[in-house]
Amino acid sequence: MKNILLHIVSVFWTISVIAQQTDSLANVKPIVDSLDEVQIVGKYEAKDVAYSHICIVKVNASISFDKTLTDYLQAKSLYQINDYGGAGGISFLLRRGTNSDQTIFRWNNIPINTVTYGGFDLSLFGFEGNSTTTNIQEATAPGWNLFLGSQLPPSAVTNFEIFTQYTSLNSIKNVVSGKYGNKKIGLQSGFAHQYSKNNFYFKDVYKVEKPRERITHNELQQYGFQQDIRMNGKKSTFHSNVFYQSKEKEIPALMGSSRTGLSQQNDKTLRWSNNIVLDSTKHTYSFTQGITYDYLNFTDKVHPDSSFYIDARFNITQNYLKCLFESDTLMKFLFISAGIDMSNYWVNTNNYEGLKHETNGSLFAVIKGNYKNYEASLNIQQFIYSKNQYQRPLFAVFAGAHFLEGDLKINCLFSEKFKEPNFNDKYWVPGGNPNLDNELGWNFEGNIHYSNRINQTLYSTFLTGYWMRFKNNIIWNPGFAGVYTPENISATSYKGIETGFDFSCNIKRGQVYYRVAYGFNRSIIDGYTNHDDLIGNVLSYRPQHILKVNVYGGWKYLFVGFDSQFYSKRYTDNDNNEVFSLPGYALFDAYLEGLFTKNMHTMSVQFKVNNLANKAYQVIRSYAQPGRIYSLSFIYKFNKY
User: Fold this and answer.
1) Which of 73, 220, 351, 532 has a beta carbon 3.0–4.6 Å from 196's, enabling a disulfide?
2) How far apart, in whole angstroms, are the C-alpha atoms of residue 39 and residue 498?
3) CA 513, 516, 519 angle in degrees (round to 5)?
């Protein structure tokens, strides 16, 4: 009977439709905005948006073809990206020292964190040119939210784009896309393909006699397509989107090994969403429905005759539904939002018997008030249908004030945290732990942001301080024979500050942009059952210092850019063993772009050098990163407005 009811609910979700309601507050061109931590440079467009569902602010920004999502976040934000070397490697995002699966990814408003990875593999998202990225500071999420959304034309426009890129990794990437829109309809289609041999030299610090080698068995082949449609009625908006991508990737060999990796990763991912927004005079009703499907086949044949041979296959289906009601009351001084979101997971894998199923969901309510220069909100969230149900509702309180005509903003936030162990934590073989407890915690932070404009010069600065504590924090640690396994650390804390400065100046047909951002983080073990000697140690792979500097300038047809980033030393285990620690490293990227426009046609040619100093470094222990990489990109655009 239970399975029949679940099937009926699933069918209902499949025929339901989606929604997302946002209120536009401002538009800035060019962008030099320091709200939260995502910073956009030069030619990108952005807007600050107040968002109604369990969050405070978000920064919305267009991503250009010449930067992948991974490159963009790595160079332009205080996020930390961990990947395994070469194009298309599995890459995860860490925020303020929190785990990769504590950063929630949503695509067109549906959650897309994979059950197997916990986090989201950034390398699987291949349509950055047709997308927007948004950073959301969600009240009750253990870490943070990152939104990925389709960039549909809001009015009459016909657009066609061709992108081709060649790199010194023996890599080629091609993307073709088109858009059409008017006040009633918006259409978007795109196709992408990438191939790379990932051949690169690296300094093998774990070898004595042969310290420098070339990786030749690390090929990547991936392709995908995306299709969007938006229809506007008098008081309604409908949006449907399909995204599919397939990837075949050879995992690089471990440093110090004399044999090739012989590890193969095959991924297939499908995202389908439908959304509708119904507007009345003071109320908005919205419905969100989405289906995600992930297939992973990871094969490791390094030790085919041993007990550590891995042939992991996962089939994951998620059905998601959100219903939302929003209302403006009391002459728009008060805003009320309430609703329900639910997810149904089905996982089939060869690592354990039977079809695993879970249902998760929550009821939420948001009350936000605005009066003159002051604003405040109370967010409440109650989890339901949870296998390890957390009974008491979680809450978050936000308060903010704007002074000097909005140039000076002061915000503070207190929120509770909660996360259940995902399927990856519990069932991954080898290393899963089905006996994990739920994570509980809280977060406090304060932010000061100041911006000003003098003639054609815009500048801003910000300072943020935060303090998070977790009980039963789920951390993956290396175990026997290098196999990682998750465990609950009884108490952890994350303290730090983030600060930055932006400067932008437009001079006739020229532009200059400068940005520097610094983050300090102390991710510490406060309590560890039966291991008092670990108390006070730094959690693995958490750098204490992150520094990012971006410089961009151009005049008429020529543009020059320079990005740099620095990460301090990281320990690779919670024992803080100096022998296995990874030294700090600094990376420098430079690019030169020629931009030619005539009537409705635009041609762009960009030459870029990544890792200009040819630095030998590791992000994950034993996996070499490429040295200096050259790339040449061609972009043609046709725009008719």
Assistant:
1) 220
2) 13
3) 155
